[in-house]
Fold:
Amino acid sequence: MKSLIIFDLDGTLLDTVADLAASTNHALTKCGFPTHEVEAYRLFIGNGINTLFERALPKGQKTADNVWDVRKHFLEYYNEHNAELTAPYKGIPELLENLQEAGCKLAVASNKYQSGTESLINRFFSDINFDVVFGQREGIPVKPDPAIVNQILEITKTDKTETLYVGDSGVDMQTTINAGVDAVAVTWGFRPKLELEAFHPKYMVNKPEEIWEIVNS
Structure:
């Protein structure tokens, strides 16, 4: 039985794409740039918010100054509206409760900025006692760099062989390779199944209940 389960946030625990899209479009409009359909954001999300803004900005406008301006308006809006269209994926609350009752250590490793990660975890999973909740933090490289996973392993005093990392993107799968931990790829998130398959994850699941079965296998 695996003792530590590390979860990505956006696209894995929570369907956040609509709020991220609305907030980025708000910021783009404030800065005088064109907006995008919600579906486009599924391919923009995953490498941190600065990369999200770079991808959302028009060709020829992807400058550091423009990213900073969009970021400022995004944070002002998203911090107030980040839970209006966001919800846990079906079966996720029950999975987390079962894992917690079974004595598993639980952690979050997200490329979302730290305060945004903490806000959403507290909002939607207040009954779950996560051992570690990490988002993007100053001085710590974002995924797929394994630093965030290595820190979680150190804090929880868990061996890599006892760890599962659950995510929905190629970034997550590369993170597991770089960190040397077993991957669970989920197909309900933002990225296409083909992207996940290219990384040959140890497990691929279509519903949260399957993660419970893997942990107990």
User: Anything to note?
Assistant: The CA atoms of residues 78 and 196 lie 28 Å apart. The radius of gyration is 17 Å. The chain has a mean pLDDT of 97. The domain at 4-15+87-215 is CATH 3.40.50.1000 (Rossmann fold).
